[in-house]
Amino acid sequence: MTTTAATFDAAAAEASDGGPVVVPVALGDRSYDILIGDGLIGRVGALMAERLPGARAAIVTDANLAGLHLDALEAGLEAAGIASSAIVVAPGEASKSFPVFERVVDAVIGGRFERGDAVVALGGGVVGDLSGFVAGVVRRGMRFVQIPTSLLAQVDSSVGGKTGINVAHGKNLVGVFHQPDLVVADTAALDTLSERHFRAGYAEVAKYGLIDDAGFFAWLEANHGAVFAGGTARTAAIATSCRAKARVVAADERETGERALLNLGHTFGHALEAATGYSDRLVHGEAIAIGMVLAHDFSVRMNLASRDDADRVRAHFSTVGLPTRLADVPGDLPDADGLLKLIGQDKKVARGKLTFILTHGIGQAFIANDVPPSAVTDFLAEAAV
Amino acid sequence: MTTTAATFDAAAAEASDGGPVVVPVALGDRSYDILIGDGLIGRVGALMAERLPGARAAIVTDANLAGLHLDALEAGLEAAGIASSAIVVAPGEASKSFPVFERVVDAVIGGRFERGDAVVALGGGVVGDLSGFVAGVVRRGMRFVQIPTSLLAQVDSSVGGKTGINVAHGKNLVGVFHQPDLVVADTAALDTLSERHFRAGYAEVAKYGLIDDAGFFAWLEANHGAVFAGGTARTAAIATSCRAKARVVAADERETGERALLNLGHTFGHALEAATGYSDRLVHGEAIAIGMVLAHDFSVRMNLASRDDADRVRAHFSTVGLPTRLADVPGDLPDADGLLKLIGQDKKVARGKLTFILTHGIGQAFIANDVPPSAVTDFLAEAAV
C-alpha cells in the first residue's frame, strides 16, 4: 500500500506546480494526453493551437453546458486564432439517438469541417459518446478533443475511445472505437455538478481501487471527504483513475480481454438501468455502485472472496451516500428471472455464455466466463429479499 | 514489361488449378484474403465455417441480387451449419442513406447478431459500402464478409475497408474504415452484369495499369477482348487489380499518403458525377474514365506527360466503349467555373488546397498538392469545347 500512496503524493505535487497533471495514454500512433487541472476550459484554444496546429473546432455541447462554459471556451479559441462553430443538443440521454446523431453529422459536414479539423465535445458522457461517434464517422474520421465536464466523464467515458449511441434494443449498441487527440479535464467544471451526480461519478473512481489497487481504495476510505471537497485530493483521485484506465486501455484497446475488467459492477448495473428505464430513478454511477456491491457479494457466495471485503465495499459506498442494495432502488424491480433476462441482453455476451467480472477480494477482480445462470438467479433471489 | 506479363501468367495458372485465386491483403491483425474464382457464392458457407468458425451470417443484399444469388448463398450457409437471416434493401445508390443505414443496423441488432458474427454483403458497391458501415458500428465492430457481384466492387470497393453512406452534402462523407475478414469474388456473378456496368468496372481495372503498371495497361490494350469475354483472362485481370490495390492499401491503410493514388481520375470524375446528380446519365466508372483521360490531358498541358501517352489512354477507353470527353456526357454540364466549384467540394481537399493525381505518363501517376485553381479552370474551359 505504501507504493500506491506514494503515487498519489506525486500526482498531487504535479498539480501543485500550477500546471495541469498530464496523464499519457499510450496507444502507438493513436496516443494522446489527458490534462487535468483547475480552470482549463479557457485554455483549450491555446492547447489546441499547440497540439493540433491548423485544426478548426466544431464544438458539440448541450444546452446546460453551453450556458455554463461555452463563452469561456469560445473566447479561448478565438484568442488562439481558431475558427469554431457550436452545435447545441438537448441535455440528457435522449440525445444519444440516431436522429440527433444525424443532425450533428450534417451540421459538422455543413460547416465544411475537414479531416484535420476537430470535433470538440464540451459536456458529460452523453455529449462525449455522441460527438466521438460523429468524429469517428465524418469523412471516415476527424480529430477529436474531449472536454469532460462531469466526474463520470473525466474518469471514465472520456478515456479509452469508446463512442456510441443508443437504439431501441439497448444502450451503446451502435458506435465506434475512436480515440481522442486530446482530453482536457477542468476540475473547476465539477463545482457546478449536483451532489448526486458527483457521487455517481465517484462510484467509477472507487471502481479503479476495487479492480486492482487495494491501496487506492484504502486511501479513498480515508480521504473521500477531501475528494468530495475539491482541491488536490480530488485532482489526485481523478489522475489516479485516468492512469488506471489508460493502463488497461493501452493493454487492450478493443476489449478483447483484460479491458473487460473495467466492467466490474456493470453487468448487474446495466440490468438495473434497463429495469428502471434508464431514468432518473437510478443514474449510471448509482447502478454500478449497487452492481459492484452485488459483484462482491456474489463472489463471496461463490467462495471466491471474503465476507469482510464485501462488507467494506458496501460500507464505503453507504458512507458516501451511494445506494448499495436492490431495495435502495426506488420503485419496483423485476424478479430474479427478469433481471437475469436483462443481464443476458447486455452486450458483453460472448456466444450466449454469461461473462461476469468477479473478485477474489478488494483490488483482485478477474474475468469469469461461463458463470452458471442458475447461480445468478439464486443469488439475485436472495439479494432481493 | 516482361516481369509484369509473367505475373499475369502466374495468376492465370493458379486459377486453372480449379481452386480460387487467393490475394492476401497484409494489414497486420486486420489481414484477410480475397478469393477469386468461378461459382464461389455457393461455397461461401464452407469458406466461412473454415475461416470464421462459429460466426452467424447477417446477409445484406438488394432486391435484384437476392433474386439472382440469395438461394445459392443460403443453401451453402445452411449446408455448413451456419445460421443466417437476410436483410434486403432497394437496389441503387439511394440505399446509401441514413434511413436505410438505420434500418439495417436495427435489423442486425434485432437479429441478436453479436460481435463475433458476420455481416455478409452480397452485392455491388452500394451494398458493400452500406453493410461495411453497419458492420463497423454495430457493437462497435462486427466481422464482415464481402461477396462483391459487380466488376467495380470486385476490383475496387470490396478491397481496402472504406465504407460509408451519402448525405445531402456529398457522397461517402459518412463512414468508417472497417476491413473485411474475407472477400469472395465469384466471377460467375459478372455474367449477369449489363455490358454498360461491366465496362464501367473495367475503367477501374485499367486504372491500376495507369497508376504504376505500364505493362498491365499494355496487356489490357492487347487482351481487353478476352477480359470482356470471361475465363482466365478476366480472372487474371481481377486478381492483378486486387493485388495492386492490396499493395497500396497495405502501405497506407487510412489514406494519409500514397493511397490517394487510387483516386486517379476521381477528382474530375466526382465533379462530373455531382454535376449529373449521380444519375444514370453517368455511372461512376464512366465518370472516372473521363476523369482519367482529363488527368492525362491536364498533365500534358502542365508539361508533365507526353501527348502520346494521353492519346493512348483516350484511344483504349474509346475502343472498349467508355466515354472519354466532357462532350460524351449526355445533357448539359456546368461551365469550367462550375466544375471547379464541384471539385472544391470533393472530400479530398486538405486545408483548402487542391490536390490532384497527375502523371508523368502511363504507369507513372503521382500526388500533386497545390495545383493552381486557375490552371484547372483554363484547362476545363478548353476541354469543354
UniProtKB/TrEMBL annotation, chains A, B:
Residues 87-199 form the 3-dehydroquinate synthase N-terminal domain. It catalyses: 7-phospho-2-dehydro-3-deoxy-D-arabino-heptonate = 3-dehydroquinate + phosphate. Coiled coil: none annotated. Residues 201-349 form the 3-dehydroquinate synthase C-terminal domain. Its EC number is 4.2.3.4. GO terms for molecular function: 3-dehydroquinate synthase activity; metal ion binding; nucleotide binding. It holds the Pfam family DHQ_synthase. Pathway: Metabolic intermediate biosynthesis; chorismate biosynthesis; chorismate from D-erythrose 4-phosphate and phosphoenolpyruvate: step 2/7. Binds 1 divalent metal cation per subunit. Can use either Co(2+) or Zn(2+). GO terms for cellular component: cytoplasm. It is found in: Cytoplasm. Zn(2+) binds at E204, H266, H284. Its main location: cytoplasm. It is an enzyme of class 4 (lyase). NAD(+) binds at G125, V126, V127, G128, D129, T149, S150, K162, K171. Keywords: Amino-acid biosynthesis, Aromatic amino acid biosynthesis, Cobalt, Cytoplasm, Lyase, Metal-binding, NAD, Nucleotide-binding, Zinc. Catalyzes the conversion of 3-deoxy-D-arabino-heptulosonate 7-phosphate (DAHP) to dehydroquinate (DHQ). Belongs to the sugar phosphate cyclases superfamily. Dehydroquinate synthase family. This is 3-dehydroquinate synthase. It comes from Methylobrevis albus.
